[in-house]
């Protein structure tokens, strides 16, 4: 049984459908990526899993339990943690305060010190800026803070919504390297990206989302080799 | 006009200004998190003043001591009001939410009028009537205690916001609600806590002023207006700005009353208000929310 799954999920904004019959499975320990153009419904999907949106139809399950009626904070408490598009860090709070709030849920709070050591080892730059207001960090550092803050919650599944958005190529490489490292240390990852090539190269499996529907599923390698993917997303 | 009178005005203004700072801190806390100006803030303060009054009249409880009861009571009351009245309308248009708090204020004032009539009531504490001279100016003990108490509570509130997880969660929510929810913060609960803390602030402020003020159904109105001006002056949602702004407005009110004819007493305050709105709408102490 998969750790996280969507089954035939429909989500709409008012009368406008944004997801139509979306099914997806994430096995424990995997990196799964969801790629697709702007407006395909990727963010809608992650917001639905996080409990910020309610599906009109279908099921979201985590570790066998229904997630689709849970409040956002309950979803986090169960270990499904999202790094949202645009990061949504707390700019006037310090780097340390941002990280502390990452371990707000009870399960994570007990291990705050240990988590903090781990995060600061992963991102030494955050240790240097620990007393600084988060809003003074550069874009790449803010993304690292957003990742660090989410890791403080001790996620079982980490979901990232376009972590590479707006970052310089070198920084993007660094972010993808870190995502792979987080996965290697045992965290299941669901990665949403428009950076199709790098996302699929990193992932065991991938889904292609178009107009709110899953149009392709496969291993990362299969999708990178798929004609439609090559034409539509890789510019080949 | 003598220097003595001026000194008196400065001292009275600063002492009441501390209380304005506390009332405004509660208002700015609620604004920061709920994004609405709570026009029932003064009416809740009025209710708290009646609570302190009745505790004294019926139970002989000193108004300062009554805080131990009214602060927690009004915290719970505030959480309840938020949950029952404000939260269900959270997605309504902003002006409708404003009308909601205005309606709540009218309801509470009229309730007080029905229950306790319009009489001015006064409460005496052990230190009511004590005073000492500072140069040519008279300093009333009760006003000094009110100011000191208000500042202490403000500092406590500030420390709570800075040092506790709940306080940090509240600041995070004020700044980035969705980011806060995604960190596992129960945002509905924290919105209630913010309203409850705001109500507890005016409960303390109410108890602190009763020994030298009066209690009547409309007593909260002037505090509400002053606190609103202070919040705008200090920067909406800025806690330190609220306390400092309280002193500025207390001073402006008191100097206005001393220098201008009685009916123009508030001219200085509102002139300051309009000037800030025109020249520095983010507040004179910078507008960063969640500070
Ligand atoms: N808050 C919203 N209200 C109405 N429509 C929305 C909203 N958010 C997204 N949409 C629409 O839903 C569709 C999917 O959007 P989104 O999930 O943000 O796509 P992606 O993240 O893949 O770019 C788009 O057509 C978008 O215009
Ligand atoms: Mg998106």
Descriptive report:
The complex is a heterodimer of chains A (236) and B (291). Chain A has 236 residues and is an alpha/beta fold. Chain A has a single domain, classed as Rossmann fold, CATH 3.40.50.300. Chain A contains 11 helices and 10 strands. Chain A has helices at 42-49, 72-77, 95-102, 106-109, 112-122, 124-128, 139-151, 169-184, 196-202, 220-225, 227-233; strands at 4-13, 16-26, 31-35, 57-62, 65-66, 80-83, 157-161, 188-193, 205-210, 213-219. In chain A, the strands form 2 sheets. In chain A, strands 6-7-8-3-9-10 form a 6-stranded mixed sheet, sandwiched between helices. A 4-stranded antiparallel sheet of chain A has the order 2-1-4-5, with helices on one face. In chain A, a hairpin with a 2-residue loop joins strand 9 (205-210) and strand 10 (213-219). In chain A, helix 3 (95-102) runs parallel beside helix 7. The longest helix of chain A has 16 residues, at 169-184. The radius of gyration of chain A is 17 Å and the shape is globular. Chain B is mainly α. Chain B has a domain at 24-217. Chain B is built from 11 helices and 2 strands; from the N terminus they run ααααββααααααα. Chain B has helices spanning 3-34, 41-59, 63-86, 94-116, 141-163, 165-175, 177-182, 187-209, 219-234, 239-259, 267-279, and strands at residues 131-134, 137-140. Chain B has a two-stranded antiparallel ribbon with strand order 1-2. In chain B, a hairpin with a 2-residue loop joins strand 1 and strand 2. In chain B, helix 1 (3-34) runs parallel beside helix 5, helix 2 packs across helix 3 and helix 3 packs antiparallel against helix 8. Chain B is globular and about 60 Å long. The chains are: A alpha/beta (236), B mainly alpha (291). The interface between A and B is medium-sized, with 27 and 22 residues. The complex binds adenosine-5'-diphosphate and magnesium ion (MG).
